[in-house]
Amino acid sequence: MQKQRQIKAIGTSEGIVIGKAYIFSPIAGECFGVQKIKILKKQINNEIKRFEKALNKTRDEIEAVRNEAAKKAGLKHAQIFDAHLLILEDKVFISQIKELIAKKHQNAAAAFCSVAGKYLKSFEGISDKYFRERTADVKDVFHRVLHNLTGQTRKSLSELKKDVIVIAHDLSPSETATMHKERVIGLITEAGGPTSHTAIMARAMEIPAVTGAYKITEIIHENDLLIVDGSEGIIIINPSEKQIDEYKIKQQIAFERKARLLTAKDEPAVTVDEHRISLLANIEIPEEAEHAINQGAEGIGLYRTEFFFMNRNDLPTEDEQYEAYAHVARVCGEKPVVIRTLDLGGDKFASALNIPKEMNPFMGWRAIRMCLERTDIFKTQLRAILRASKIGNVRIMFPMIATVQEVRAAKKIIEEAKDELRKNGISFNENIQIGVMIEIPSAVMIADILAEETDFFSIGTNDLIQYCLAIDRVNEKTAHMYDPLNISIIRMIKIIIDVAHNISYTDENYNKKIKYPFAWNNNHKPIKVCVCGEIASEPLLAYLLLGLGIDELSTAAISIPQNKQLLRASSYKTAVKTSIEALKIHNSDDIKNLLIKQIFNLNLEK
Ligand code: PEP
Ligand code: MG
């Protein structure tokens, strides 16, 4: 057993767990989870022989499968396996691995993974659809070789037999979504910041998680005993009895606090001076809706529908989508359900759509851009949402809006979808509300124009911060620069809220010291603004948003009771004063201190 060790990384999903490590390395061809060992000179020949033996064994296995397939399905179908065999004959590939063993003294498994990883990356980067699709075949061959080298089998997170803390380089959102929820009690990844979709999913599933843990797959071994503190970002490997006792007490305190917070779940989210705002929930799968309502959610502020399109090789049908949306609408009754249309791309991919890997996926062919080209997929989804609008208070929201033309084009497609339903005698809410995500800086600057076209705004701060500060939201190396309290972000949020509410800068209630350099038009009716990015669940930011005049906060269900407690202890008047104060400060540390001071003065446990 390795010695005790404590590591600090990014706490991305709150909660404390104590359990055994499970190293997850889903893709052979990448080194994650494969131990890298420096071998001695005298071991080189033996390591090369082991590698050759693994190749031969893999070749025998594939030939056996090919013969079997030829018997059952005919020679034509068996030919696919000839391509698999060719991978094993690739002289350059094999010599690169042998060279790493001989010259860099790497163990065979690590050398194989390193070279295979590069091959996979180049395959995935090919723009030709046929070749890109062959990546799965190549991966399959690589898995076999790795298995024959190490005995390591391909792991799955959906079929776990015991409770584990998963250790991985990274998890795709689909791997996170299909995890065995009861068995995965904690999660640690090397990659990802607090707004990566893996972190968002972990919070939605209430699994304590720490991300950005540098080289953790090499540090932690399978079955090591771990303490994971997802609130503080602390990992303790092989803790002492004393530490275990200490963390068990912390676990109990957190548990009791949660239970106490829940007692106020049916109270309104109203400040001491009677200012009301709505607390809504973000969900990724329809089954989460019930839990959200049980946590006191006043509706669903963001239903991320893209998870429907992941973990499968085909596209969901209109009926399938309708059932899911209708389920959420039914659970919520009169309460609003904001269904966001497909936001694939960025760090969320669907296999059926074959979205090519891009240099800058967050700025690429994604979300509304993709939907406006693939109108077949878009309209199917819109028809399903419209049909569900008959059941409850369903609304439509478009993601990643950068121009008003996109909104107009998307609305036109809604009209076409409505026409199709009318022709088929299918009823829906004719006046369904349409909103947009404000998450691209260009949308902030045309907020007045967008408000003329829409019924509500929802600020996607996860993306808005990344685009405004040019900080990749999933890159653990820049996570410390991803700063929601940067004055540029606070100003942007203030502009969005004021413009949406139609508050002109000459109004008395506006801080006259900050003047916009041009006049916004105010041809539109005032509309509501929600924040559905992860900042809405951070107490300091939730308080600041209250003061900036936000109407709604939409968060993971787990954060609703805490936000309610904060609001019910706050004075709106003081929060407004604090936010005006914050707008005058240019340094985020000073803004943070100001907010801490305010929250410290609140009587939270009243
Ligand atoms: C956001 O960008 O803040 C948001 C809520 O959407 P997503 O995290 O799904 O990109
Ligand atoms: Mg977004």
Question: Can you characterise this structure?
Answer:
It is built from 24 helices and 16 strands. The chain has 606 residues and is an alpha/beta fold. The protein folds into 3 domains: 5-21 and 172-257, 3-Layer(bba) Sandwich (Glucose Oxidase, domain 1); 29-150, Enzyme I, Chain A, domain 2 (Orthogonal Bundle), CATH 1.10.274.10; 271-600, TIM Barrel (Alpha-Beta Barrel), CATH 3.20.20.60. The chain has an 8-stranded mixed beta sheet with strand order 1-8-7-3-4-5-6-2. Helix 1 packs antiparallel against helix 3 (80-89), helix 4 (91-104) crosses helix 5 and helix 21 (539-548) packs across helix 24. The longest helix is centred in the first third of the chain and has 30 residues, at 44-73. The model has no long low-confidence stretch (mean pLDDT 88). Bound molecules: phosphoenolpyruvate and magnesium ion. Residues 302, 304, 343, 439, 460-463, 532-533 line the site of phosphoenolpyruvate.
Q: What is the terminal-to-terminal distance?
A: 47 Å
Poorly predicted ranges: none
Content-based structural category: alpha/beta
Count of helical regions:
24
Query: Structurally, how many domains make up the residues?
Result: 3
> Quick one: how many beta strands?
16
Report the biggest beta sheet as strand number plus sense, adding barrel if it closes: 8 strands, mixed
